[in-house]
């Protein structure tokens, strides 16, 4: 009985965390950009016009570089989080994997689309840890990080809210952040945002409608 109560409480806490992430993402984006929908049931927030990303340079988990040029020539999805996240990121990444699998209905899009996980915790997310974390969800996913200033600058470009909480007595801390999946077009510009990642099937439909209108 006790285990059942703990499980129920854990599920409620996860739902609250996800709801908070969606709420923060919606508020932050809503106060910075014009939004339009491709359909009444769409989960996409189109960036109209598309947004040019300020020059940046980060490091992949395999220690090679990643910059604006690496976002050109194909569509990309970017998600900001950290490997120590115990609620928002596992839930979001699980849905992103389902989204990616759903895109198999269009193999060309699925194979050309790049997924990039940007760590908001460069101090703890070492290249080795980041590589293990992202490839644990899918071997084709790319993990990147950089200096705190570089990560902050890129997060601001994508309207990502995040805040490191005070550490506990053992020095452990969590990072609160918005739940936002960003779609970048082959010109390396932000084309759309998704702040509700709970329905991978609808996300896949929206992405295909944007990529192949």
Would you write up a description of this structure?
The chain has a single domain (2-211), classed as 3-Layer(aba) Sandwich (Glutaredoxin), CATH 3.40.30. The chain is 38% helix and 23% strand. It is built from six helices and ten strands. The protein has helices spanning 2-30, 88-102, 107-112, 127-135, 148-157, 200-211; strands at 44-52, 57-60, 65-67, 76-81, 114-119, 142-145, 162-164, 175-177, 181-184, 189-194. The strands form two sheets. An eight-stranded mixed sheet has the order 1-10-9-4-5-6-2-3, with helices on both faces. A two-stranded antiparallel sheet has the order 7-8. Helix 2 (88-102) crosses helix 6. It is globular, with a radius of gyration of 17 Å.
What's this, in brief?
This protein has six helices and ten strands, in the order αββββααβαβαββββα.
**Average pLDDT for all residues:** 86
Enumerate the strands of the largest sheet in spatial order, edge to edge or round the barrel. 1-10-9-4-5-6-2-3
The CATH fourth-level homologous superfamily: Glutaredoxin
Helix share, percent: 25-40%
Oligomeric form of this entry? single chain
Q: Can you count the helices? A: 6
* Named CATH topology: Glutaredoxin
Number of spatially distinct domains: 1
β-strand amount: 15-25%
Give the helix/strand class.
Answer: alpha+beta
- CATH level-two architecture: 3-Layer(aba) Sandwich
CATH class: Alpha Beta
Order of helices and strands: HEEEEHHEHEHEEEEH
How much is the radius of gyration in Å? Answer: 17 Å
Shape: globular
State the major sheet. Answer: 8 strands, mixed
Number of E strands: 10
- Model regions low in confidence, pLDDT < 50 over at least 5 residues: 7-40
For the terminal residues, how far apart are their CA atoms?
52 Å
């Amino acid at each position: 009985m006790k285990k059942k109560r703990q499980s129920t409480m854990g599920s409620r806490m996860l739902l609250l965390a996800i709801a908070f992430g969606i709420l923060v993402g919606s508020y932050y984006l809503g106060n910075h950009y014009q939004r339009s929908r491709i359909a009444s049931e769409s989960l996409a927030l189109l960036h109209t016009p598309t947004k040019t990303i300020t020059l940046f340079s980060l490091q992949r988990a395999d220690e090679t570089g990643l910059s604006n040029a690496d976002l050109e020539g194909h569509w990309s999805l970017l998600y900001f989080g950290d490997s120590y996240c115990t609620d928002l990121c596992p839930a979001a990444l699980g849905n992103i994997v389902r989204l990616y699998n759903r895109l198999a209905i269009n193999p060309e899009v699925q194979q050309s689309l790049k997924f990039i996980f940007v760590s908001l915790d460069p101090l703890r997310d070492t290249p080795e840890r980041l590589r293990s974390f992202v490839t644990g969800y899918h071997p084709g996913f790319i993990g990147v990080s950089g200096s705190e200033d570089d990560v902050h600058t890129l997060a601001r470009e994508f309207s990502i809210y995040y805040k490191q909480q005070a550490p506990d007595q053992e020095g452990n801390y969590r990072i609160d952040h918005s739940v936002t999946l960003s779609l970048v077009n082959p010109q390396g510009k932000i084309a759309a945002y998704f702040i509700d990642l709970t329905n991978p099937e609808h996300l896949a439909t929206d992405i295909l409608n944007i990529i192949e209108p």
